[in-house]
Amino acid sequence: MGTGAWGAGWGLVVDYVEAREEIVDNFYRVRRALGVLGLLLPVILLILGIAFDEAEPSISDYYHTLSRDVFVGILTAIGVFLICYTGFRRDDTERFSDDLVTTLAGVAALAAAFIPNRGTLNTSLEPQALTQHLFGVVLCDAAHHLAALVFLLSMAYLCYFKFARTANPGRRAVYVACAWLILAATVATIVAAGLRKIGTPEQSAFVIEHQLVFWFEAVGVWAFSLSWLVKGRADRAIIRTAREAVAKEG
């Protein structure tokens, strides 16, 4: 191969690495945004709840407070980011593509944002949102909790079967731990929510007083956030290594 051909070929390699860097950088920004939004959601709601004396027993209950805009806004942003995120192409060893899993999670996040739960204080079943007027408070309450469940399970699946599959041993341990933490938090949330609704008065009071549902939900959301932040840094490390290799060869 002549010198000119070699130079042209190496130029294509450099262009390819630079193009990949732009793609990975875009993925990193989305992943970082998702991670940061997830980390902030419980924190901001709790701070506002304390500030306005409206601390609620669950994250979903903040829809019925002055913090509604924050709750809906952050969940909407998370949902849109997840739907727009395509991820990597599915290979023959994978059952579902990244795009399918994140789109399902994004739709679930949007549903949880715009289909509110019943609310702790709404004993009269009075509609407080458009969806509740259209479909009824009870049906929306069930749909909201189903959407939250789908969102968390999708994130656990992504951590365990997607992120961990190609990660190095250290990051794989983080992703697997996040997946199990999301699942454990989901189960704990279901149990606590059940005790709050159909448990004895003492059990219900204990769950509400200690905000158990809120903290279990927060742990699940934080685990989801951590996995996305770690995944973003991992991809940045890969492209940094490729860039350094190109610089040395150049």
Automatic annotation (TrEMBL):
Coiled coil spans: none
- What residues form the membrane-spanning segments? 33-50, 70-88, 100-116, 136-161, 173-192, 212-230
Please tell me whether the keyword Repeat is annotated for this protein.
no
Keyword line: Membrane, Transmembrane, Transmembrane helix
Give the protein's recorded name.
DUF998 domain-containing protein
Species: Psychromarinibacter halotolerans
